[in-house]
Write a structure and sequence with these properties.
By secondary structure, this protein is of the alpha/beta class. The protein contains 7 helices and 12 strands. The protein has 2 domains: 70 residues, Alpha-Beta Plaits (2-Layer Sandwich); 247 residues, Rossmann fold (3-Layer(aba) Sandwich). Helix 4 crosses helix 7. Belongs to the peptidase S8 family.
Length: 341
């Protein structure tokens, strides 16, 4: 169903995520949806990581499945998407050094210079960017970026919005970023307008669970949605598989990041932005669930622009990209660790 005219948090009429208790019931459940005498019923996607399905259901069928002992819970599919910070809350003060972000990563004290190339570079680690896609041929990636999967219907295997490429560049770009040798895999779940659905994001994360190697992988997911038990459950699945997930806190000061998914999940590492004076960015979404602040608003990141407007399509996730790069270095040095803290 088209979401072009819907806002973040709006429901997608008739579409539901049905999470099951027992894996042996999945095929029986699929057969039930496909065989029911209801033109509104259609199985859209089957997920494996959390034993769930996305389907179009009538009101009567929703109630029927809610009463089924094999069903853990049902939630309606909602629209998710990227929210740009209010321009009035974004500082325009120039930083003293285009590489200030790298200096802040390796030194606690302000003003201390560090080498632009860290001893650990993320080589051998794969970062899965679950976003709007990645322009994998950009020169900043030096051939380290590849296409993974596309879960946006009727869209091309490229970044049609710019945000995913920006995020990937702040994580593993060769010039201004921390993990300069990390491999980047694009998982597209948001469209050319930066919008998608919970079902898209679930499909992308389900694919990551199947393909990512524990101890050698890190996942980046944007914020931008309401609370979803299904999203939180699959984040926990990744956590338990020793695949850390990093997510933006958000860019709306009036919204508590703990009220969203996956930003509010205790199994995700929620990242907020700070400026070059170690002050939290004014556009951050607050919340006790915020795990860490990291450098944002780096003018040097203009080097990874893909489209003319790319540098404007920034969220707290893309504005805190150095933190997203750091887990790659931690995993590189500690492959047997089960978490990244």
């Amino acid at each position: 169903m088209s979401i072009n005219k819907k806002n973040i948090g709006d429901v997608v009429p008739g579409e539901f995520i049905i999470v099951l208790k027992d894996g042996s019931f999945v095929q029986k459940f699929q057969d039930k949806v496909n065989s029911v005498d209801d033109h509104d019923a259609k199985l859209l996607t089957a997920y494996k990581a959390i034993l769930a399905c996305c389907a179009t259901l009538s009101t009567n069928m929703v109630q029927e499945f809610k009463n089924d002992d094999n069903v853990a819970y049902i939630e309606q599919v909602r629209v998710v998407g990227l929210k740009l910070p209010d321009a009035s809350l974004v500082t325009t003060a120039m930083q003293p050094d285009d590489l200030w972000n790298l200096n802040r990563v390796c030194e606690r004290k302000l003003g201390v210079k560090c080498p632009s190339h860290a001893p650990a570079t993320g080589k051998g680690i794969t970062e899965y960017v679950v976003d709007t896609g990645v322009y994998t041929d950009h020169q900043e990636f030096n051939g380290r970026a590849s296409w993974g999967a596309n879960f946006v219907p009727n869209s091309e295997d490229t970044d049609e919005y710019g945000h995913g490429t920006y995020v990937a560049g702040t994580i593993g770009g060769s010039t201004y970023c921390v993990a300069k040798e990390v491999s980047i895999v694009s998982v597209k779940v948001l469209d050319a307008r930066g919008s998608g659905t919970i079902a898209n994001v679930l499909a992308g994360l389900d694919w990551v669970v199947k393909n990512a190697i524990p101890g050698k992988s890190v996942v980046d997911v944007p914020g931008g949605g309401g609370k979803s038990r299904a999203i939180d459950d699959i984040i926990k699945r990744l956590y338990n598989k020793s695949i850390p997930v990093f997510v933006a806190a958000g860019t709306d000061p009036s919204h508590n990041s703990g009220d969203g998914s996956p930003s509010g999940s205790p199994y995700a590492y929620t990242v907020a932005s700070m400026d070059w004076l170690d002050q939290p960015s004014r556009f951050n979404s607050p919340g006790k669930n915020v795990d860490i602040f990291c450098t944002g608003l780096n003018p040097g990141l203009e080097a990874i622009e893909v489209y003319e407007y790319l540098s404007k399509n920034a969220t707290s996730g893309s504005l805190s990209g150095d933190l997203k790069g750091m887990p790659n270095l931690i995993v590189y040095n500690n492959p047997n660790e089960t978490t990244v803290a």
